[in-house]
Design goal:
alpha+beta, 9-stranded mixed β-sheet, 5-stranded antiparallel β-sheet, 6 helices, 34% strand, disordered N terminus
């Protein structure tokens, strides 16, 4: 499956059905606020290390949101600035080990988030492989899908809303976008959470009912115009034109004269767009 497989987080129980992540990053005795809506159970914290690690011990259709993360991360353990004012959300969804559609889950989730953002009025939105969402080449949102146990996946979603990532990391200056700068009336984090969870559930249901092929044309449309890219295959470099993804969620690269090559997501450590 096209998921980042992680060992199950060691746990200290905080709430019936909800457990703490490894390392004790949550305050002793901390309890989340729990609510139920639209088929989801949502647990909300002031601060955690990583919402994905907290969600590692949840059940399908349960989610965790935190005001801030101290150890937010992206693919290959890259750090993700998660200051207060952004949406830091991890949702647990069921996966079918017998279905190939699970390999494309990160892109289906990216489609769901992009549908929410476009519905709010975000213009010039596109996806950068595998699951970054950009506005005019500035990063607005990102996703990370982990698998901690069979039959379940954790979809981590980060959206810059009212936060100030550049204040925490000056190198991000002119690299990020925020909803508050894009929309005249951005939704509250609570409203945004509800919208994202609702659309994510619909995307997962559609994918399971009709396979990823049903969503593939919509996903490939999100990449925007063809772009020349360089792939880092864990030290080996390949360059060519990014042609989207196939029904198995594999990246398609056209190197010119040769036939296009399909790469599994786990093979590609990094993709760089070449202007």
């Amino acid at each position: 499956m096209n998921l980042s497989k992680q060992p199950k987080a060691a746990a200290h129980e905080l709430h019936p059905g909800l457990q703490n992540e490894a390392g004790g990053r949550l305050a002793p005795g901390a309890s989340p606020h729990a609510s139920v809506a639209d088929g989801w159970t949502l647990f909300e914290y002031v601060a955690v290390g990583s919402t994905n690690l907290v969600a590692a011990n949840l059940k399908a259709w349960e989610a965790v949101r935190a005001d801030r993360q101290s150890a937010g991360r992206g693919r290959f353990q890259r750090s993700w600035i998660s200051d207060e004012g952004g949406l830091w959300l991890s949702a647990v969804v069921p996966t079918n080990p017998k279905s190939s559609s699970g390999r494309a889950l990160p892109m289906a989730a990216g489609l769901a988030v992009s549908d929410v953002l476009r519905g709010l009025g975000v213009q010039s939105l596109r996806m950068r492989w595998p699951n970054d969402l950009l506005v005019k080449d500035r990063k607005l949102a990102g996703l990370l899908v982990d698998q901690f146990s069979p039959g379940l996946a954790v979809v981590g979603i980060g959206i810059n809303a009212f936060n100030e990532p550049e204040a925490s990391e000056p190198l991000l200056k002119n690299q990020t976008a925020r909803l508050v700068d894009i929309l005249p009336n951005p939704p509250s984090l609570r409203e945004l959470t509800a919208l994202v969870l609702g659309e994510l559930r619909r995307a997962i249901t559609r994918m399971e009912e009709g396979s990823f092929e049903a969503l593939l044309p919509l996903v490939n449309k999100l990449w925007g115009r063809p772009r020349r890219v360089e792939l880092d295959l864990d030290g080996t470099k390949r360059s060519g034109i990014f042609k989207g993804v196939d029904a198995g969620g594999r990246l398609i690269l056209s190197e010119g004269t040769a036939e296009a090559i399909a790469y599994e997501p786990w093979q590609v450590r990094h993709l760089t767009e070449i202007n």
